Every structure is written in structure tokens, then in C-alpha cells.
Amino acid sequence: MNLLTIVLQxxxxxxxxxFLIMMVAIFAIMYFFMIRPQNKKRKEIENFRKGLEVGQSVxxxxxxxGKIKExxxxxxxxxxxxxxxxxVDKNSIYADxxxxxxxxxK
Length: 106
Fold this sequence. Notes:
- The chain crosses the membrane at residues 17-35.
- By secondary structure, the protein is an alpha+beta fold.
- The protein is built from 3 helices and 5 strands.
- Strand 3 (75-81) and strand 4 (84-89) form a beta hairpin.
- 6% of the residues are buried.
């Protein structure tokens, strides 16, 4: 029992700084591989939504493809078929349909 106590005390004494260094390293890894790319993608989507134009082909959050017919304050009128228009929230538009189709073709 005494030998086990001595070994555990010695291991615990030097572990203070190594634990701190390991926690900082884990946070840095999480920042560069998770948080930073998500923020970058969010900014790209925000810029895309600010640049929406009438006649642009888009994809909604529900996967509906259509063309923008009108842009109102916080909503967008999207024509999904000839004569069929739906009103969607501007925040539910996620992608340019033509760019997405080109990226899927590759």
C-alpha cells in the first residue's frame, strides 16, 4: 500500500502543468477544426443572403429548388413551378441552385 501511495503522489506532482497544456491544446484543436470553419461558413451564408437578386435560382432549407420572383423585407417569394409561388423566410435560403448543381456534377 505504501509503494502505491508514493507512486501516485509522484505522478500527481508533475501533472499540474501537463494537464493545463493538454487542455489548451485541446481547445486550440477544437477552435481551428470546428469553431473557425463554422463561423466562416456562417459568414458566407450571410453574405449570400444579402446579395440575393430577383431571378436567381436558389435552394431552400427544405430542399425546394426555385427562382426568386420578389424580395420583401424579411421574406422572399420563390417560384417553384410555372405559376406556383411560395413565400419563404429569407433565412431559410441556403444555396445558389446553379452553383450547387455544378458542384454535385464534379
